[in-house]
Amino acid sequence: MTPLLMSIIINNYNYEHFLREAIESALDQTYPHTEVVVVDDGSTDGSRGIIADYGERIIPVLKENGGQASAFNAGFLASRGEVICFLDADDTLLSTAVENVVDLFLAAEAGQGNVVKVHWPLWEVDGHGNRTGQTQPREVLQEGDLRELVARRGPGNYVSPPTTGNAWHRGFLERVLPVPEKDFRICADMYLFELAPLYGAIKRIATPQACYRRHGQNAYASYAFDEKLKRDLWNYDRCCDALNKHCLNLGVDVDPDAWKRDSWLRRIHLSMREVMELAPPADDFILVDQGEWGASGSIAGRHAIPFLERDGQYWGPPPDDETAIRELERLRQAGASHLVFAWPAFWWLDHYVGFHRHLRATYRCARENDRLVAFDLRASGRMG
């Protein structure tokens, strides 16, 4: 029996400081039937010199800058593997990653299964490669047949790791590539995440198989929250269009208008518009969202403070009502003008009875709907 060939496709743009480590991790796999394709997307730094150093050990693809989707497409055309892993050039694979991935695909084939994707969490590391103790994503990854879920609720409704945490069956990629290059210049992995459940099952490796690097040059991670939200909404609409198109081709009945109307991103967008109406520019406001919105720092000229917070970072829910009240009053005295509960944290209002009672008795409830509950902290005394 001919062994499965695995292709690791590294997409690189101006990451010379990390590229060699990514290539070495791809070449250092314990599974021997692996080819490494390195796509340089028009880098202007020293990346191409590093690529040249590896000679015939890798397959180089040197192209003009066109974005991540174009790098995926070019790398796939140069590859031969039956299983494909796209590796971001600032990330690395653990040495056993490919071996573990191939085992799952082989087991699926032996069981007559149609697996299109295997995914796994990633260790989060800093710019020097030191683990932070966190994983990406933090949530437990799903697996199995997710077709009905995605068709009913649309994009963004199952947990998927970033680019480096996925391996794809070539047959699936042949059905959905090329990635639309104009629509997915960045976040091209989203296009693949959302379409995969339509074409087969997803398998999960529970333990991290790669490292996800957080550093100052991360393009997406460096955006402010409001810029990220704007880009995410644009990408979400593109994913809706792509998913709808493929559902129609497969005869799957869907309602893309409902996807957009009910989406998590739309709810955040509407909520933030309301917060901006409440909190004047340059104000600090306290946001209780359990860190799920990804909102911190400057937002449209306002400053969002997580709650509870330590050194500006979300620190988790308070242990008791007294702690919540004490921390609220500390932040109010420091200048916070509003306290906003986002819907992921509505349970606080039931759980922290004393804290909730304090808020209702002391501050005006300025907004209350199915997305947020906001209190005006600028004047004490219940005002309705």
Question: What's the helix and strand layout?
Answer:
Layout: E1 6-12, H1 16-27, E2 34-41, H2 47-53, E3 59-63, H3 68-78, E4 83-88, E5 92-93, H4 97-110, E6 115-119, E7 122-125, E8 131-136, H5 147-153, E9 166-169, H6 170-176, H7 188-199, E10 201-204, E11 210-213, H8 225-250, H9 256-262, H10 264-278, E12 284-288, E13 297-299, E14 302-306, E15 309-310, E16 313-314, H11 321-333, E17 336-342, H12 347-351, H13 353-362, E18 364-368, E19 372-376
Descriptive report:
- The chain folds into two domains: 6-227, Spore Coat Polysaccharide Biosynthesis Protein SpsA, Chain A (Alpha-Beta Complex), CATH 3.90.550.10; 264-376.
- Helix content is 38%, strand content 23%.
- The chain is built from 13 helices and 19 strands.
- The longest helix is centred in the middle third of the chain and has 26 residues, at 225-250.
- The N and C termini lie far apart (75 Å).
- The relative contact order is 0.10.
- The model has no long low-confidence stretch (mean pLDDT 93).
CATH superfamily of the largest domain: Spore Coat Polysaccharide Biosynthesis Protein SpsA, Chain A
Count all strands and give the number.
19
- The low-confidence parts are none
Oligomer: single chain
The general outline is globular
Briefly note the structural class of the backbone.
alpha/beta
Write down the Rg: 23 Å
Reported CATH architecture of the largest domain: Alpha-Beta Complex
Taken as a percent bin, the fraction of beta residues is 15-25%
CATH topology of the largest domain: Spore Coat Polysaccharide Biosynthesis Protein SpsA, Chain A
Number of helices: 13
Strand order of the largest sheet: 3-2-1-4-9-6-10
